[in-house]
Amino acid sequence: MEAGRKEKIRGAEVGLICRGFAAGYLTPAIVHYLHAVNLPLPQDQAAAFGAVGFLIGVSAMWISDFVIDALARRLRPGG
After folding, report:
1. Which of 56, 59, 62, 77 has the fewest Cβ atoms surrounding its Cβ within 10 A?
2. Distance of alpha carbon 28 from alpha carbon 3, whole angstroms
3. Spatial separation of the C-alpha atoms in residues 23 and 60, rounded to whole Å
4. Angle, to 10 degrees, between the axis of helix 45-75 and the axis of helix 3-36?
5. Of all residues in the chain, what percent carry a pLDDT higher than 90?
6. Whole-prediction pTM
7. Residue 16: CB partners within 8 Å, gap ≥ 6?
8. Which residue intervals of 1-79 are DSSP H helices?
9. Residue 23 backbone phi and psi in degrees, to 5
10. Whether the Cβ atoms of residue 59 and residue 13 lie closer than 8 Å to each other
């Protein structure tokens, strides 16, 4: 397997793990905060959790992709 392909697979795995942890741990706190500041959210609590969890998860995945790419470039031999 090529080195570039291994990096992409690892990055995808790390992105999924980061997305899961971020969404799982941050969603309840952020939904509670959004309710506290009276931001209009869906009446259905599950819909609010789903929407906020999705946004947190996607953001975490993008951030982890950026960090993994930067680390791979820095640690790559000759790079």
Report:
1. 77
2. 39
3. 8
4. 140
5. 33
6. 0.72
7. 61
8. 3-36, 45-75
9. -65, -40
10. no
